[in-house]
Amino acid sequence: MTIERMFLMKLKDGFLLRELAGSYVVVPVGQAAVDLRGMITLNETGAFLWKQLQTSQTAQSLCEAMTEIYDVTADKANEDIARFVRMLTDHGLLEEETA
Amino acid sequence: MPTATIAGRTVALHGCDDMIHAEKFAAFPPTSGVPDQVITVVDCDERLAPPAGTHSGNDGMVDWYRLSDGKRQLFHRQGLFSLTFDDDFSAVTLCLCRDFDERDVLRYLYVSQCIAYHALAHGAVVFHGAGWLCDGKVVVVAGDSGTGKTTLTDRLTARDPSVTVLSDETVIVTKEGDTWIAHGTPLCGQDHRFAAVSAPLSRIVILARGENDRLYIPPAASTVFRLLETTLRPIYHEALCTAALDRVIELAKAIPVYGFDHTAGPKALTVLSAALSEQA
User: Fold this and answer.
1) Which site among A12, A15, A20, A36 would you substitute to test the B interface, given the most B Cβ atoms closer than 10 Å to its Cβ?
2) Of B224, B236, B242, the CB nearest to A25
3) Which of the residues A81, B2, B179, B242 could staple to B25 if both were Cys, CB 3.0 to 4.6 A apart?
4) With an 8 Å Cβ cutoff, are B228 and A39 in contact?
5) What is the pLDDT along chain B (280 residues), one digit of tens a residue?
6) pTM to 2 decimal places
7) CA nearest neighbour of B239 among B86, B39, B82
8) Which residues of A touch B241 (CB under 8 A)?
9) In angstroms, rounded to a whole number, what is the distance separating the alpha carbons of residues B84 and B95?
10) B196: distance to nearest CA of chain A, Å?
């Protein structure tokens, strides 16, 4: 999957992220809990991207944030970001807008 | 007016003299003359009109509103019932249409839920589970309907009459200092098993049906998810859902939590008892 690099995306409201013994869980509340029955578990990188996406981001800004924090190439970061964004999109968790 | 003190909170019911709650409340005498929570049930002859307020969400046929006075309301789209409450469920009004077939069931359900949510708003965690008081400590056996709470409770009390059942349906847990205390409630199942006692919580067992009888320790994330799934929380109230999640995480760090998959067969209780003894 490729993501338009300047396409703005942001997580929908109504999700709580919590850390549990080194792993992370995301729990929906309010209307989000009606639309998504269940919970999402994330690894550290997923939690990092999740936190970034609580404000509007582009694929490029995510990649820049990720390569700044983690010892990872831009190509590998883009690959991880594309997979993560696809998962969020498949579950209807992202709001998208054009820049 | 039926009044009871449940897990330290005094609850008064208006318009509920004929309710099954009223009868059960007698076992939980009030310790305060001033109720912390007042639940009023009103029967209406006509369909209700939608409230004047801000629509904030919906679940099926029930719309959620924020009213101009700061209260919240759940409103049935056909006007069959409405539930109006403040943020901590201390003042609740349930209006029910007389021509609503499910009136009695809904009344029991919402009154029970509102008592639980008021406890949640004041620091408790409320489990959909049975509480067994054995040797001065409580094991909460939580799970969805049909996972075996009643079956196992029946077998346990038949085998060991010294066990006290705090409730076969709903247990309230509070934190007092560093100790988590489980409280009996009158919010119980059809067998009406409950006791107005409180005692330290020692363990939580989350039930599921399985092909074998097996006690295990779930991974941390799964533990929290499954615990949360067995708590009573209003999904339309984000602050209380957040409180429930954070309290469940805190509880899971302090109290051993097990999963128990079982066949509901005659050996299940024996396996559970033996496994818990081994883990103690």
Assistant:
1) A20
2) B224
3) B2
4) yes
5) 899 999 999 999 998 766 778 888 999 999 988 999 999 999 999 999 999 999 999 999 999 999 999 999 999 999 999 999 999 999 999 999 998 988 888 998 999 999 999 999 999 999 999 999 999 999 999 999 899 999 999 999 999 999 999 999 999 999 999 999 999 999 887 777 899 999 999 999 999 999 999 999 999 889 999 999 999 999 999 999 999 999 999 999 999 999 999 998 889 999 999 988 887 6
6) 0.92
7) B86
8) 16, 27, 29-30, 33
9) 8
10) 32
In the block, tokens 């029991």 appear at B108
- Contact between chains at A27 and B228 (C-beta distance less than 8 A): yes
Question: What residues of chain A lie within 8 A of the CB of B228, using their CB?
Answer: 27, 39
Residues of chain A in Cβ contact (below 8 Å) with chain B: 14, 16, 18, 20-21, 23-25, 27, 29-31, 33-34, 38-39, 41
Q: Do residues B130 and B165 touch, judged by C-beta distance below 8 A?
A: yes
Burial degree of A45 (CB within 10 A; 0-12, 13-18, 19+): middle
